[in-house]
Structure formats: structure tokens, C-alpha cells
Amino acid sequence: MSKTKQRIYLMIGPVLFVLCCLAIPKSAFPALAERAAIGTVAWMAFWWVTAPIDYAVTAFLPIAINALVTMCDMSAVISNYASETILLLLGASILTVSWEETGLDKRIAASLLGLIGDNLRIQLIFWFMLSTLLSAILPNAVVCATITPIAVSMLKYIGEGDIANSRIGSKLLLYIAYGAGLGGLTSPLGGAMNLVTVDYLQQLTGKEYMYASWVVRFLPIMIVLLLINIIFMIRDVKKGESLGGSREYFKKEYKKFPPTTIEEKISLALFVIATVLAFTRQFYQNLLPGLKPAYVFIICAILSFLITRSDGERLMLWKSVQTKIIWEMIYIFAGGLAVGTLINESGAAERIGELVSGMGLTGGLTTVFVIVTVTLLMSDVTSNTATAAVAIPIVISIVKGMGLNPIPYVYVASVGVNLSYMLPTSIRAIPVGYGLQPKYMLKEGWKMTVFIIISMTIVCTLLLKFWPAFSTV
After folding, report:
1. What is the pLDDT of residues 440-450, one digit of tens each?
2. Nearest CA to 416 among 388, 445, 376?
3. pLDDT digits (tens, 9 = 90+) for 90-135
4. Is residue 435 helix, strand or coil?
5. Helix 348-357 × helix 365-381 angle, to 10°
6. Is 73 strand, coil or helix?
């Protein structure tokens, strides 16, 4: 990027902020805090996509702007930079550094390539489906944070470690994040946003909501979404395109590795223990209520510093480890959470809901389209859980005002709440931290957003009209 272009991009960011503060009609967003929150999103999104400054630096804008134009209590903003999810990402990043120190990353990469093969389509579908299936019962951030470094190890092994300039690497990491988001829609256990929805469904019906009902209602939606994602993912991948080498070649390469060292075994064991405990929390949460996934990863990360080599020297020293931690990923994730806090705490999100309620909706296709579009776009700039907390009660209020059954429209809103594709916020910050360019994410994401809005509007409208079960719990 030329210096002139960089200066222009740097100036456009704050100009967008000022324009939002001054040009957005006060009739729509009366409070300066609301307009400033929208302006902060515009500023951050532009800088993340054009990259005139480091992505991690952009992630601190919510703090700086909120100090100048108060949109909410600063403690609410700052807390995002030390949230449980941030600690989870830090712990996972430290553990994967130990893989590099021991050479475990190369061993894992070779074994996976020998197992799955080198066909690019199969590789893409494998990682996407793995992420989707795991996130059906696990927090999306845990899934994305644990699968991404494994995929990165494989990419480095085949010479595709420069994710920013690797078509294969960029596509693979992007769809791991997409899968983690999509899988959350499969069941109420897929994320806190679904539990928020379940709580409102229980309030509407006055009875306990059976999780199996969710799976049944969303099964046709999930089938369509999976097909759309897979078709879009492999649309520009030739049928016989490979990663280079064959399955037999990678199997031979794996056999060349020396016997697994004790350091590798311990390094792998710590990561596996952290992952398994994070995935099985429901079985021990009553016994150890404080041992949440984030703290499990931090504990195992601390233990990794106790690993010693055969010569008695410690494997991990903070002086060297800190240079290999993916700090950018951590700060981008935090920045996404922080700007989401500004949108919600300033009242901008609630104001958007009020504007939607004043559109004179009457149910059917148009109402479904508006709900899917608004919730999906809100999920792109704030957290899925925050979107659910704001959007679901508004949807219920609007639909009740029409004299219609709100339950199917709550299901429709859940689709948009779970899906988002364009900006490096929420779990999409994780692949960006490993090198994926936000410009590429936006380029692919806006197309996916359009396809999803159109397809989900049609599918949900058909379900609402022709499938009575979609209107019940």
C-alpha cells in the first residue's frame, strides 16, 4: 500500500465516524451515544477491511472513542479485553506454542494428511463439517479456537503457512469459522444465544422446552444451510485439485518421524485434557462450578511451562513464548466484543428494534425477510448472544402486535442470530489472528450474506406456511 493511499484510508475512518454522528437523522437515533456507536462500527469496519493500520490497533478504538464521546460506562467496554473467552484464546495459543517447540505440529499435520488425503474439496468439507458438528453441542469460540491451530499446523507443513497470501489457507480457516457459527444453530447447546431463545420460548408457552424439539424444527433449515455453505465453499475448487502430494506420500513422510518424545506426549496431553474438559463441562459443573473452559485452558497453559527437555532445560520460557502467542487474534476478538457492547449499551440496538417495529409489518414473507436481515446484520457487529437478548423480545412484541403466533418468528430470528459472515467480530476474529485478511472475509462474506438472507427467507416462509410443527414447540 502506498503512503498516500494509507493516509487517505486513515482519514476516512474518523470521517465516517463524524458523518454518522452528524448525518444520521436524530428522528431515528435521537441520542449522540447511539449515533456514535454506529459511527464506531463504521470506522472499525473500514480500517479492518482496508488495513491502513494493524488490525490489533483498530481493535482498541472502542476504548479511545468512548473516552472522547461517552457511549456507555467505560468498565463495560474494558471488561471485554479480559473476558473469559479472551483467556480461553490466550490459553489455547500458549498450548499450541508448545507444539511448535516440540515439533508436535509437524507430526499432527503429517498424520492428518495421511488420514484425510490431499484432495482439496475433501479437506475443505472435512474441516467445515468437523467444526459444524462440534459446535452443535459446544461453545462456538471453543470449537474455533481448538480446531484452527490444528488446521494451521497442517497448512504450514504443506507450505501454505502464509495465510494472508494463501488461497487454500484463507478458504480453509474462513470455513472453519463459518462451520462453528452454523453448527451452533443445530441445538440449544450450540451457544448462549440459543439458551436465551429457549428461555423466551418457555416464557411464551409456560412449560419446559424440550431440546429435541429444537433439533426437529431446525433440521430442514440446517440441511439447506449446509448445502449452501458447501456449494459456495467448493464452487471455485476444481474436482481434482490437491494440496500437493498424495495420501501415500504423506503416510511415508509420517513414518520418517522419529519416535514420539515425552515432551510431545505431554504437550499433546495438555491440549487434549483442556479440550475434553471444555467439551464435557456439563458432567462436572456441579462439582466444580468455577472450572469453566477458559480457566481449564489457562491452567493447562500454566502447566505447559513446567515441561522439561531430556537435558533438563525447560521447554517453555515466557521470554520466547510471548513472541509466538497470537496476540493479534486476541485483541481483534476483544475489539469485536467491545464494539458490540457500545451498540447495545448505548441503546442503538434497541433503537433499531423500535424502527423495525414501526415498519408496519403484517407477517409472512416480508416479515421473515426483515427479521432474518436485521438479526443477521446485527450479529455481524455485536455478539450473537447480545443480538438474541435484544432481538428476540422485540420480535415477540412485534408479532404479538400483529395478532399472530410469535413462536415460528422466534425460530426465524434464531437463524439470523446464529449466522454472520462479513466482519472479523466474534469467532471470525480467530482466523484473522492467524493471518486471514478481513478484506477477503468481507469479499466472501457479503456474497454469503445475500445468499443466506434470500434462501432463509424462502425456506422459513415455506415452513411457516406449510409445516404446522414449525409453529409449535
Report:
1. 999 999 999 99
2. 376
3. 888 888 888 888 888 778 777 877 778 778 898 899 999 988 988 8
4. coil
5. 170
6. coil
pLDDT at 124 (0 to 100): 92
Residues 6+ apart with CB under 8 A from 289: none
Triad 236, 226, 209: Cα angle to 5°: 160
Rounded distance between C-alpha atoms, residue 425 and residue 376, angstroms: 13
d(C-alpha 321, C-alpha 324), whole Å: 5
Average pLDDT, the chain: 86
The amino acid sitting at 406 is P
Please provide residue 143's backbone torsions phi and psi, each rounded to the nearest 5 degrees. Answer: -60, -50
Instruction: Map 245-303 to HEC letters.
Output: CCHHHHHHHHHCCCCCCHHHHHHHHHHHHHHHHHHCHHHCCCCCCCCCHHHHHHHHHHH
Query: Is the pLDDT reported for residue 402 higher than 70?
Result: yes
In this prediction, residue 473 carries a pLDDT of 66
The residue extents of the domains of the chain are 82-195+211-321
pLDDT band at 137 (very low <50, low <70, confident <90, very high): low
449 contacts 376 by C-beta, under 8 angstroms: yes
Return all residues near 375 (Cβ < 8 A) that are at least 6 apart.
387, 391, 413, 415, 416, 417
Alpha carbon of 205 to those of 55, 297, 405: distances in Å? 45, 39, 11
- Burial grade of 386 (CB within 10 A; 0-12, 13-18, 19 or more): buried
183-187, 244-248, 450-454 — which is least confidently predicted?
244-248
Report d(CA 182, CA 195) in Å as an integer: 16
Residue 192 has pLDDT above 80, yes or no: no
